[in-house]
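User: My collaborator sent over this chain with a note saying "see what the structure looks like." That's all I know about it. Can you take a look?
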Amino acid sequence: MSAALGGEAPAVRRGWNLWAGHGAGTWDLREEQFDGTGVTAHYWSPEGPPTLAAVTVDGRTGPQVEWDGIKLIGRPVSEVDTEVIRHIEEQGLEWAVHCDGGPGPDELNMYIRATRTGDHVVSGGRFFAPDWEDRG
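Assistant: Without extra context I'll predict from the sequence alone. Here is the result:
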């Protein structure tokens, strides 16, 4: 992920040690937070080393992302939710509510997330691999 972001080093790396039967095994990368770019990379390892499974765009600091002309990032959540759901239904697509309550087109593996900014919330987004299990 760092290479895709022009070499930006992660501000935070999260993971855990897999239990090996007699104590901690190998450390398993789960998440890298890139504050300069405003994105978080989520990794998983269904078989073998961790691979990129999802990217969360922070609503306060992340880049603007558009989907079919709808600006998804940094806007009032209710406005983005309404536009996204309307567009999904107009296109004859199915929509789903994901684990944190955000809507998104079921077929495209993306959804709107709320990002707290002081006493307000703005829209962020999560984009993920089809078989990734999102846990929030």
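A starting point for your reply to your collaborator: The radius of gyration is 16 Å.
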